[in-house]
């Protein structure tokens, strides 16, 4: 009898932990309005992109949660048969993501991402962000940005 009660208590605890984990994971992400090409050197040319990633819970509130991210700058198709091309790509580790949290007026992970090589040509690109919360399905968002060069 005591063994049956312990099993029942264990099942209740497992159900509680599953419900808690489900409530504590984000249901979507938002890319902040300041996500764009960024000129850190002041020479008029973008040196990379600055990305603001805000995970949101089911109520729409910003939430800090462990995870990793991948950011891609994509040149959209120029014609019917031309497929989109990845121009630059950044993989953000859980440790980097953790220390990039900014608890300001607009809470978000703030990621300054410099170009890996030669800067892309000036123009409009899609910035595709995939955020993978720990133990949950990856979430994605896309924002159209302009890359500037003098």
Can you tell me about this structure?
The protein has 150 residues and is α+β, with helices and mostly antiparallel strands. It is built from 2 helices and 9 strands; from the N terminus they run αβββββαββββ. Strand 6 (101-102) and strand 7 (108-114) form a beta hairpin. The longest helix has 22 residues, at 2-23. The protein is elongated and about 65 Å long. The termini are far apart.
Number of helices: 2
Shape: elongated
CATH topology (fold) name: Immunoglobulin-like
Radius of gyration: 20 Å
Q: What's the CATH architecture?
A: Sandwich
Question: How is the secondary structure organized here?
Answer:
Elements (H helix, E strand, L loop, with lengths): L1 H22 L4 E4 L4 E3 L9 E9 L10 E9 L9 E8 L1 H6 L1 E2 L5 E7 L8 E11 L5 E9 L3
Antiparallel strand pairs: 1-3, 2-3, 3-7, 4-5, 4-8, 6-7, 8-9
What's the quick description here?
With 150 residues, this protein is an alpha+beta fold. The protein has helices at 2-23, 94-99; strands at residues 28-31, 36-38, 48-56, 67-75, 85-92, 101-102, 108-114, 123-133, 139-147.
Key words describing this protein structure:
150 residues; alpha+beta; Immunoglobulin-like; 5-stranded antiparallel beta sheet; 4-stranded antiparallel beta sheet; 2 helices; 9 strands; 41% strand; elongated
